[in-house]
């Protein structure tokens, strides 16, 4: 953690800065007051009470507490006279010494300039997150012409998640540069353009098999039909993009012909939610998001998941049943690669949410159109072809890590759970 946090971002246009901020323009002097030492209650109040005696205006504040050590920075306008400024410096140092803190006061100009163009949020997930990985990523940012303005921890478990505010380089270029380094360092990274649109994601649609749940549903059915190995082989090829999904689906479903449909209850009981799935959905719903699933699997299972998790939307294939047995066919519109993207669009229309404000999560090649159509596409423990094409990839086995990509911290999630 740097001892000197950078100046804060300017207020958005909807909240125009007060006139006092204009006194900190690029060509005027400012004072940067830095205080650091053992944290305790009252330090922030004490510093600003001390500064208040000199009639200065506050331009920027930044404070960080790490393992009980505080770093507090205040960017202020100088007092009216040189004499008063000298007295301020002496007074601040005496106040700090009385609390066994260290203080530093730096004079300068141009301290409050707006961030450079090209601003991005970079979320880094590591399990663990090594110092070597952080160094390599920071070096890539620098080589791309960017600057790390701020670093903020989002979570310390089950993965370490940090967010970097980066300026000075276009988001697309930064994403391309960091994707290469992230793969080399075996960490996950998401690069999202800064701005209000990041906060505006209001609909999340996810794949089911190997995303929301740990299983491939058709393989669970196939295990009861005695053809699991044959089905698994075809499924794997389809997810890698080596086979047309619709054709592979028909071939696999045909192997279920004659299986008693009552096995559905057993299959439902065998389904295992992905770790973090309930937390992800519960947190999104608290925030007013609508949540849906779209699956190349079957309504015989997804209907149960909708009820279990309180989902808003769902689409899947349906196994045809005659005389209490599966016929080996599906009925209605097949939910394939193109179909998943169509259902995302339909869900967005029903939710009255623009596609730009949607998040799609998936792992297979048949999810690619949906991931590319969404405002943010997340490849979750995905096949290589999917990781390379998606906006971002998460390769840890916890579905709730997607929350960190939206800027939601682990502490906020846990605090909300405690309230309930």
Which tags fit this structure?
420 residues; alpha/beta; Alpha-Beta Plaits; Rossmann fold; four-stranded antiparallel sheet; disordered N terminus
CATH class wording of the largest domain: Alpha Beta
Calculate Rg over CA atoms: 27 Å
What's the domain count? 3
Report the CATH architecture of the largest domain.
3-Layer(aba) Sandwich
Question: CATH superfamily of the largest domain, please?
Answer: HAD superfamily/HAD-like
Structural class: alpha/beta
Largest sheet: 7 strands, mixed
Question: What is this structure, in a nutshell?
Answer:
39% of the residues lie in helices and 26% in strands. The chain is α/β, with parallel strands linked by helices and 420 residues long. It folds into three domains: 22-109, ACT domain (Alpha-Beta Plaits), CATH 3.30.70.260; 120-194, 2-Layer Sandwich (Alpha-Beta Plaits), CATH 3.30.70.260; 204-389, Rossmann fold.
How would you describe this protein?
It is a single chain. With 420 residues, the chain is α/β, with parallel strands linked by helices. It folds into 3 domains: 22-109, ACT domain (Alpha-Beta Plaits, 2-Layer Sandwich); 120-194, Alpha-Beta Plaits (2-Layer Sandwich); 204-389, 3-Layer(aba) Sandwich (Rossmann fold), CATH 3.40.50.1000. The protein is 39% helix and 26% strand. The protein has a 7-stranded mixed sheet, sandwiched between helices. Helix 7 (217-225) crosses helix 10. The longest helix is centred in the N-terminal third of the chain and has 17 residues, at 82-98. Mean pLDDT is 90; it is low at 1-25. Keywords: Amino-acid biosynthesis, Hydrolase, Magnesium, Metal-binding, Serine biosynthesis.
């Amino acid at each position: 953690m740097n001892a000197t946090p950078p100046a804060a971002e300017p207020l958005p246009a909807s909240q125009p800065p007060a006139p006092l901020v204009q006194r900190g323009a690029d060509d005027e002097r400012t004072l940067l007051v830095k205080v650091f030492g053992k944290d305790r209650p009252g330090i922030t109040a004490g510093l600003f009470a001390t500064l208040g005696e000199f009639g200065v205006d506050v331009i920027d504040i930044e404070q960080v507490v790490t393992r009980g050590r505080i770093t507090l920075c205040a960017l202020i306008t100088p007092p009216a006279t040189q004499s008063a400024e000298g007295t301020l410096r002496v007074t601040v140092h005496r106040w700090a010494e009385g609390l066994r803190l260290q203080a530093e006061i730096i004079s300068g100009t141009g301290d409050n300039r707006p961030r450079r163009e090209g601003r991005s949020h970079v979320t880094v997930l590591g399990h663990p997150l090594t110092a070597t990985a952080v160094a390599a990523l920071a070096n890539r940012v620098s080589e791309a012409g960017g600057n790390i303005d701020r670093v903020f921890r989002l979570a310390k478990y089950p993965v370490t998640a940090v967010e970097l505010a980066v300026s000075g380089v276009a988001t697309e270029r930064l994403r391309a540069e960091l994707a290469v380094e992230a793969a080399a360092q075996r960490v996950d990274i998401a690069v999202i353009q800064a701005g209000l649109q990041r906060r505006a994601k209001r609909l999340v649609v996810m794949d089911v098999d190997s995303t929301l749940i740990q299983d491939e549903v058709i393989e669970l059915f196939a295990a009861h039909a005695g053809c699991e190995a044959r089905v698994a082989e075809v499924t794997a090829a389809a997810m890698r993009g080596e086979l047309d999904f619709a054709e592979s689906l028909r071939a696999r479903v045909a192997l279920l012909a004659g299986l008693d449909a009552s096995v559905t209850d057993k299959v439902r009981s065998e389904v295992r939610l992905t770790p973090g799935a309930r937390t992800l959905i519960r947190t999104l719903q608290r925030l007013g998001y609508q949540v849906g699933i779209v699956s190349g699997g079957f309504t015989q299972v997804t209907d149960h998941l909708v009820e279990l998790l309180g989902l808003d939307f769902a689409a899947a294939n349906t196994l045809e049943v005659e005389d209490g047995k599966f016929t080996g066919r599906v009925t209605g519109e097949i939910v394939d690669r193109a179909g998943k993207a169509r259902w995302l669009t339909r869900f967005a229309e029903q939710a009255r949410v623009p596609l730009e404000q949607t998040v799609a999560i998936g792992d297979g090649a048949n999810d690619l159109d949906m991931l590319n159509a969404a405002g943010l596409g997340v490849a979750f423990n995905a096949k290589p072809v999917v990781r390379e094409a998606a906006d971002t990839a998460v390769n840890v086995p916890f579905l709730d890590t997607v929350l960190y990509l939206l800027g939601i911290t682990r502490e906020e999630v846990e605090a909300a759970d405690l309230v309930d």
